[in-house]
Amino acid sequence: MHLRHIELTNFKNYEAVSLDFSPRFNCFVGNNGVGKTNILDSVHYLSLTKSFFNNSDSLSIKYGEEFFMIKGEFEKDGESDDLYCAFQRQKTKVFKRNGKEYQKLSDHVGRYPVVMVSPADSTLITEGSEERRRFLNMIISQYDPEYLDAHVRYNKLLMQRNKILRESAGYDSATMLDLYDDQMLPLAAKIYDARKELTENLKPLFSDYYERISHSAETVNIRYRSHLAASDYSAQLTEARSRDLTLQYSTTGIHRDDLIFEINGHSARTSASQGQQKSFLVALKLAKFGYISRMNGFFPALLLDDIFDKFDETRVEEIIRLVGTGDFGQIFITDTQKERIHRILDRTGIDFRLFRIGREGIEEEINNGKENSDEKK
Ligand SMILES: Nc1ncnc2c1ncn2[C@@H]1O[C@H](COP(=O)(O)OP(=O)(O)O)[C@@H](O)[C@H]1O
Ligand SMILES: [Mg+2]
Predict the structure, then answer these.
(1) Quick one: average pLDDT of 70-88?
(2) Phi, psi (degrees; rounded to nearest 5) at 156
(3) For residue 377, what pLDDT band results from cuts at 50, 70 and 90?
(4) What local confidence, expressed as pLDDT, does residue 376 receive?
(5) Tens digits of per-residue pLDDT, 271-307?
(6) Ligand 1 neighbour 326 (Cβ under 6 A)
(7) Ligand 1 test: best mutation among 8, 14, 27, 38, most atoms within 8 Å of CB?
(8) pTM
(9) Domain 1-113+303-377 has CATH 3.40.50.620
(10) Which atom of ligand 1 is nearest to the CA of 306?
(11) What is the pLDDT of residues 107-155, one digit of tens each?
């Protein structure tokens, strides 16, 4: 699978841009703030129907404009699909594949998987459990179409259940709560099973990548923690009822799940060095990439943003060799220094296109090792 072409209109700092990509490596070089990350985010958007960075779609509209539009052409199994995404202020998002609008955005998610490796990944370690649940959700939704629906339904029921808990004073809400629990239980079980299976499968991939990236003998681990791990969750739910009523929210369930990150048996957040945390996060993302590839039978697009921020040139070269040689997918990578990324790709012998971004916009400078080539497929 690869993205052949993208067209942006009023997307973040881009008024109008049209780019043809290499099925292998695509590099974006330019100074800080020119819009390298924004290109990667537009690919993320087209793939997952949302920005990697902001939850609010209007933040992706170019300042002072009313709408943005992203068009793209993905190729998979020899067939190509035209995608169209548009968002106008105060309106709902329109997402079409081959001219036909999706009924639900979740029908699109997973069709063209991507994995972003970004400095913002650090929030996985530093922030609360919601970030880590989102991490799990985003992986599973890219190979299990039913998961996202189950999750959306669970969250809706959870909100209604919490509302009952808040408003229950003075009337007997037990029957209502029973009804909710009966509906939520099978959804929670499905979500729990998927998350558990994912974590088990991610673990060995993750340890392996960590070892290769960090060149160290530290043992790293990820553990899934959930109330549903208890042998009788239904009894636990009953037990929690009076506490739920007192606190006025649902205190147990998959919405409280967490992932525990450890290095040598200690919490990665409190005990790992900055360097260890960086290796940890990249290994985690590459494990995600590896697992989605295995589940789908093809490679997601890999978006490597500011990877030089995390590692020196030798280490980045190793990472590029790790993900970039042999049979692999399409990669998008950003760097502030053209010479550095050029050097690495020359040494690895991988075909690439290089786009230079400046104040005037984007220019394709190198295509498959040829400077200023006009040949475009
Ligand atoms: N909605 C928007 N409209 C116009 N410009 C934007 C918008 N959102 C971000 N930008 C601009 O994008 C630039 C940052 O782009 P980014 O891709 O992060 O740069 P970098 O090349 O450092 O990765 C900033 O100059 C910012 O002002
Ligand atoms: Mg950037």
Answers:
(1) 96
(2) -65, -50
(3) very low
(4) 40
(5) 999 999 999 999 999 999 999 999 999 999 999 999 9
(6) no
(7) 38
(8) 0.93
(9) no
(10) 23
(11) 999 999 999 999 999 999 999 999 999 999 999 999 998 999 999 999 9
Q: What number is the average pLDDT over the span 353-365?
A: 92
| Protein residue closest via CA to atom 17 of ligand 1 | 35
Q: In testing the pocket of ligand 1, which one of 10, 12, 37, 338 has its CB within 8 Å of the most ligand atoms?
A: 12
Which DSSP string corresponds to 218-283? Answer: --EEEEEE-GGGSS-HHHHHHHHHHHHHHHTS--SSGGG-EEEEEETTEEHHHH--HHHHHHHHHH
Ligand 1, atom 2: closest residue by C-alpha: 12
Give the C-alpha separation, 228 to 241, whole Å: 16
pLDDT at 375: 44
Distance CA 214, CA 318 (A): 11
> What is the residue with the minimal CA distance to atom 24 of ligand 1?
33
DSSP string, 313-336: HHHHHHHHHHHHSSS---EEEEES
Interval between CA 33 and ligand 1 midpoint (Å) = 6
State which residues have CB under 5 angstroms from ligand 2, the bound ion.
36-37
Cβ–ligand 1 distance for 32 under 6 Å, the answer yes
The ligand with the least distance to the CA atom of 34 is: 1
The response to whether residue 33 sits with its C-beta less than 6 Å from ligand 1 reads yes
Residue 115 to residue 146: CA distance in whole angstroms: 20
**Residue boundaries of the structural domains of the chain:** 1-113+303-377
| Summary mean pLDDT of the chain | 93
Question: Ligand 1: which atom is nearest the Cα of residue 334?
Answer: 23
